[in-house]
Specification:
161 residues; alpha+beta; 60s Ribosomal Protein L30, Chain: A; 5-stranded mixed beta sheet; 2 helices
Length: 161
């Protein structure tokens, strides 16, 4: 087993040769994993918001689903991945607080999940695993040798997708 590379909030990274990528405490945020099963290159982005388009000064493109995905794909290609072989698994997108309002703007987790799926579709990347929604946080880890995504949830144990 290689090293474990931590990916922070509004951050992204790439791993290969047996290394793992992990991100902690996904609430309404989404952990987007991309994987090339042939080159065994894995990528992980921890996004906070669905779109950068409404933000004027985007100093951190890893914060948004749309801009993070572009950077992650580029980094993976530089590491030996092929875009045509990439598959994705996503986790997070929880509704961490209950709101009495019917305002969809407050449903950040759900909006993040929808935006992520739309962007994957636009880019022609197949979504093969999805653990989004609910009202609980998740910690995830993807193994670059296998592409298995481990999802740890407090009180619910660990599952693999």
């Amino acid at each position: 087993m290689g090293k474990v590379i931590k990916v922070g909030m509004a951050d992204l990274n790439v791993a290969k040769s047996g290394d793992c990528l992990t991100t902690l405490g996904l609430g309404s945020c989404i952990g987007i994993t991309l994987y090339d099963p042939i080159s065994k290159v894995a990528g992980l982005a921890h996004i906070m918001l669905p779109s950068s388009k409404s933000i004027k000064n985007n100093s951190n493109p890893a914060k948004f689903a749309d801009t993070a995905m572009d950077i992650l794909i580029d980094k993976m290609i530089k590491a030996g991945a092929r875009k045509t072989r990439l598959v994705s698994k996503i986790a997070g997108g929880a509704q961490m607080f209950s709101f009495s309002t019917k305002n969809d703007l407050m449903k950040i987790g759900q909006r993040n999940a929808i935006a992520t799926k739309e962007i994957l579709k636009e880019k022609g990347i197949r979504l093969i695993g999805d653990d989004t929604g609910g009202n609980f946080g998740r910690t995830i880890e993807i193994n670059s040798d296998t592409g298995i995504l481990f999802i740890k949830t407090i009180g619910k144990g660990t599952k693999e997708i």
